[in-house]
Amino acid sequence: MVDPIRTTVSRTSAEIRVCVSYRIWIRVGPYARRVFRRLGMEATRARNGVLILVLPWLRRFRIAADDGVAAEIAHD
């Protein structure tokens, strides 16, 4: 899983991180945003950080993206 992410990151200025958390959180969205900020992912120059948060115990995941990524997705 690490090699495809590393390859993608080397082709772009985006910062992509995968975080696996074994904590039990009912509200996954707010937790993902908190982890995103704690990791300092909003500090990228183009505001293009992406966090993939995986919660195996809940069988859930959440993708948190910075403003630059969200703006591009809105245009598609």
How is the secondary structure organized here?
Layout: H1 2-10, E1 15-20, H2 28-38, E2 49-55, E3 60-65, H3 67-75
Describe it.
With 76 residues, the protein is of the alpha+beta class. Helices cover 38% and strands 25% of the residues. The protein has a three-stranded mixed β-sheet with strand order 1-2-3, sandwiched between helices. The protein is globular and about 35 Å long. The mean pLDDT is 83.
What are the key terms here?
76 residues, alpha+beta, 3 helices
User: How many alpha or pi helices?
Assistant: 3
The strand line-up of the biggest sheet is 1-2-3
Poorly predicted tracts of residues: none
Structural class: alpha+beta
Number of strands: 3
Radius of gyration: 13 Å
> Outline, from the CA principal axes?
globular
Largest sheet: 3 strands, mixed
Helix content: 25-40%
* Distance, first to last CA: 27 Å
Mean model confidence by pLDDT:
83
Q: What fraction of residues sit in β-strands?
A: 25-35%
List SSEs in N-to-C order: HEHEEH
Briefly characterize the structure.
This protein is an alpha+beta fold. Helix content is 38%, strand content 25%. It has helices at residues 2-10, 28-38, 67-75; strands spanning 15-20, 49-55, 60-65.
